[in-house]
Amino acid sequence: MKTLPLFLGLLCAPAFADRGIPLSNATRVLLPNGLALEVKDGGLCVVRDGQFAAVPRPEDRPGYDWPVTALTRASATDDRTRVTVRFTGECGLEDEQTFALNDLWARSEDAQGLSLLRSKNPAAAAKAFLTALRFDPGFEEAAAHLAAAYLAAGKTPDALDALSGLIAKAPAKTYLLVLTDPDLAAILKEPRLANLAASVPGTASLKLEEVLAAGQDFTSGRRAAYEPVRGIAAAVVYDRASVEVKENDFSWVWSSDLAFVDAKTGSVLARLPLVDKTMTEPTDSYNRPVPVRKSKAIEVQKRVALANRALAELGLQTPEQVKPVPDPKRDSGHGNNGYAFPGTQLGFSGADLVKGETKIARIKDAQLVSWSSYLPGPGLVVVQWGQHPSSSCPRNAYDGIAVLRP
């Protein structure tokens, strides 16, 4: 019988003062029960028995996805259930993150399970995924991987049961997850998943030519799509980032994703990649991006087709929307222009949504607004936000989609 680490039963124990943990070196720190945290490929990974599993950055601090370069400090609580790691990134940016050891162990088990699944051992993989979910019952990726393991073993009912919690909690998110995962797509025809699709197919779609040229509009020329029954908004997120093409010589590349957002909670349900930064040639022009490389056009075409399928099957439409116009009276300085939505009292002053002269909402972590649309029907503002770009630091200029209810 497999022995589980001691910290599994300590989640409810009180946390006391932090105690320092010596760093093995600038990129690695050893943790209890054979775990380690390591800097790898610009991010943080949990390591156990030679398996690496990426640790996601906090969702409440988007926009700071600069590459991590070194660890500077690590500490654990007295009860040894949590660890805090401080680290630095390119351009000297600093941050820290706190992890529950149970969550790190869950991710390491998930990595073990994926390795077994790739080795055509779905039964052993399923056991690893079940252990991961025992440590972190809310680990959605492990639930999806468990379903894939059952499906690979020919156990379709078990695969559907593995997803039942996700289906009940987040049906649209689950549908997107299955639709975009080749290991799961075969069960989309099963009633428990097929019934999650919209009863009325969506009409919003993206044109390949527009996506290849960094366009963000749907075929109607509108920036936002919306599905009113479940309250889902969609928009294309466009990112620009600087890259060092040679020493102290920086250029710009770009990428785009189709983001689906729960308009009620603001949480991102999924981001489907359309164009990766590696698919574009670096350019000296910040304002005029170069098109996608011709050799990558077929790959982008497949991604656009999948994105359009998701838009249709989740019922996304392109409703009437009002685009903002410049409003100098709302300029907030520091390069943040003011905007107003004609026929309404709404507008933007920097990253603040205002009604008349009153600030009514602010986008967390935003420094500027790239574009916005007001949807009069549902009464929502969809906006792409970001930080000020820097030509000397590889940091994203734009980073996310927000849905605001005035």
In short:
This protein is of the alpha+beta class and 406 residues long. 23% of the residues lie in helices and 32% in strands.
Note the total helix count. 9
Please list the strands of the largest sheet in the order they lie side by side.
Answer: 2-3-4-5-6
Main beta sheet? 5 strands, antiparallel
- Tell me roughly what share of residues is in helical segments: 10-25%
In whole angstroms, the N-to-C terminal distance is 56 Å
Radius of gyration: 23 Å
Oligomer designation: single chain
Mean pLDDT: 88
Shape: globular
Pick out the low-confidence regions: 9-17
Helix-strand category: alpha+beta
SS elements, strand count: 21
* N-to-C series of helices and strands: EEEEEEEEEHHHHHHHHEEEEHEEEEEEEE
Strand fraction band?
25-35%
Structural summary, described in words:
It is a single chain. Helix content is 23%, strand content 32%. It has helices at 101-118, 122-135, 140-152, 156-162, 164-169, 171-180, 191-194, 208-212, 297-313; strands at 18-20, 23-25, 28-30, 36-40, 43-48, 51-55, 68-77, 82-89, 94-100, 225-227, 232-246, 249-262, 268-275, 325-326, 338-340, 346-349, 352-355, 358-362, 368-375, 380-386, 398-404. The strands form 5 sheets. It has a 5-stranded antiparallel β-sheet with strand order 2-3-4-5-6, with helices on one face. A hairpin with a 4-residue loop joins strand 19 and strand 20. Helix 2 (122-135) packs antiparallel against helix 3 (140-152) and helix 3 runs antiparallel to helix 4. The longest helix has 18 residues, at 101-118.
